[in-house]
Amino acid sequence: EGRDVPFDPEQLRKIQSHPCFSEKACSRFGRMHLPVAPKCNIQCNYCIRKYDCVNETRPGVSSDVLTPQQAIERASEMFKKYPYIKVVGVAGPGEPLYNPETFETLKLIKKKYPNKILCISTNGLLLPDKIEELTEIGISNLTITINAIDPKIGKEIYSYIKYNDKEYRGQEAAEILIEKQLSGLEKAMKTDMIIKVNTVLIPTVNENHIKDIAKKIHEKGVYLQNITPLIPQYKLKDIDPPTREQKKKIQEECSEYVRQMKHCRQCRSDAVGKLGEDKSCQ
Ligand code: SF4
Ligand code: SF4
Q: What are the structural domains of the chain?
């Protein structure tokens, strides 16, 4: 069942009011994604960059990017219309931590709406560098996508990473990314954040490795894992996606180590409302 350390009441509120962290919250509370982060600092082999970040959201659609000011205006409008929206997050369309607009937007939201829960998803490369800023802003719910903890497997999943203006490829890229993800995770665990790990299930590449990831994140104290099926595109377009049974079996195996999220809807990076009942906000 994952984490053994009890949560404090404020952390519990942030789990129980977040539809992604608590299935029970789904019917009562909503979330809003603000698409303010277009650029990305890595290349996943299953991602076509003209769409939303596939690590947290659904591929095949691209959200219009908003400026922080436009995002605040949209948020204000949506909060009026749908007061049950408790959570505001940035999940793309690229990598949130690689775009200064993410921080600007969430700071503005916190100032204007201090009671909203702030949420972010990341590929983890910049997590160790940005963790303090995230804590200062008051981000409480964090999702990191970790698809491999072994660089030999990771090199099949990532083409390159860009870190401090330098590009890395192959196994070296995977080594750096994994090291940053795990050290970022450790730093995040020392804060009050509630952490979810997303893992894309890629048959023939990481299917037999996901249990190792579950074990590792359990050791680190992660609250929840969300295993999402590969949607084959770009360099991994010829891989058959996992069947429902395959996914279920792996989720069951991993649930020995860490609680599993089974209700993810792979929402767009501009999704608004309750999970599964998205409102158009265009
Ligand atoms: Fe695409 Fe997201 Fe991977 Fe960047 S982190 S390449 S946007 S899936
Ligand atoms: Fe929640 Fe999954 Fe949608 Fe993210 S993509 S908001 S985790 S349901």
A: 9-273 (3.20.20.70)
